[in-house]
UniProtKB/TrEMBL annotation:
<keyword id="KW-0479">Metal-binding</keyword>
<keyword id="KW-0560">Oxidoreductase</keyword>
<protein>
    <submittedName>
        <fullName>Prolyl 4-hydroxylase</fullName>
        <ecNumber>1.14.11.2</ecNumber>
    </submittedName>
</protein>
<keyword id="KW-0408">Iron</keyword>
<dbReference type="InterPro" id="IPR006620">
    <property type="entry name" value="Pro_4_hyd_alph"/>
</dbReference>
<feature type="domain" description="Fe2OG dioxygenase">
    <location>
        <begin position="111"/>
        <end position="220"/>
    </location>
</feature>
<keyword id="KW-0847">Vitamin C</keyword>
<dbReference type="Pfam" id="PF13640">
    <property type="entry name" value="2OG-FeII_Oxy_3"/>
</dbReference>
<dbReference type="InterPro" id="IPR045054">
    <property type="entry name" value="P4HA-like"/>
</dbReference>
<dbReference type="InterPro" id="IPR044862">
    <property type="entry name" value="Pro_4_hyd_alph_FE2OG_OXY"/>
</dbReference>
<keyword id="KW-0223">Dioxygenase</keyword>
<dbReference type="GO" id="GO:0004656">
    <property type="term" value="F:procollagen-proline 4-dioxygenase activity"/>
</dbReference>
<dbReference type="InterPro" id="IPR005123">
    <property type="entry name" value="Oxoglu/Fe-dep_dioxygenase_dom"/>
</dbReference>
Length: 225
């Protein structure tokens, strides 16, 4: 019975183990630095992608980007004003980047959603949200059968931004400014494997320049689209 009720909103030893495994692997990596916070497990890795790789991914985003939607599919026009697209998983570069993210984190490729590209021009933003699924949302019933909860988020900045565009974690009192080629990885679960409300974050409005990112969200189980 408890298994049936474990719907992603409560502590879970399995999700806690995913968090611990990734954390241990990132902490062993001399190229990775932990952002100092006792509220969230979050890490940065500079120069994860080369300038050429960032440029190629930016071009793919420019070619494919459409106005972003929210996961719920709701048309809340001012909440996520960027443009985005799913990148072709069979493209050689997209495949290489995804493989490298899996090698860095140790997370299995088949738990990863499609790499998503996103572009913000001046004035565009993604307001505060959590990447994990709220279990009281109607779409959760679908999500729990196609991979379950989102555990880690990995995101790579593909451009520097002249002003604005920081990734802000308001409960944790820090902001990460975009740096071309830098990867950011955080656990959306807390140490008990329950959704971590401290992982709430926003993409602050770009003030000057254009911000590009790719994001890959990892599910707790095999992801089936
Ligand atoms: O663009 C950012 O800095 C954050 C993006 C984000 O939160 C997301 O795509 O889930
Ligand atoms: Fe997010």
């Amino acid at each position: 019975m408890t298994d049936i009720l474990d719907d992603g909103g409560i502590a879970s030893p399995a999700r806690a183990q995913i968090g611990a495994d990734v954390r241990a692997r990132l902490e062993r990596n001399p190229m990775v630095s932990r952002i100092d916070s006792d509220k969230i497990d979050i890490f940065g890795r500079q120069a994860f992608l080369s300038r050429e790789e960032c440029a190629a991914l930016r071009a793919m985003i420019d070619a494919g980007a459409k106005p972003s939607t929210l996961f719920s599919g709701s048309a809340n026009a001012d909440y996520r004003t960027s443009h985005s697209c799913n990148l072709d998983p069979f493209d050689d570069l997209v495949r290489a980047v995804s493989d490298r993210i899996c090698a860095l984190t140790g997370l299995p490729a088949h738990h990863g959603e499609t790499l998503q590209g996103q572009r913000y021009t001046a004035g565009q933003e993604y307001k505060v949200h959590c990447d994990y699924f709220p279990v009281n949302a109607d779409y959760w019933q679908r999500m729990r059968t196609c991979g379950g909860q989102r555990s880690w988020t990995t995101m790579i900045y593909l451009s520097n931004v002249d002003r604005g565009g920081e990734t802000h974690f308001p409960h944790c009192e820090f902001m990460v400014p975009p740096v071309e080629g830098m990867l950011l990885a955080w656990d959306n679960m807390d140490r008990s494997g329950a959704p971590n409300v401290m992982s709430l974050h926003a993409a602050r409005p770009v003030e000057l320049g254009t911000k590009y990112v790719v994001t890959k969200w990892f599910r707790e189980h095999r992801w089936q689209r």
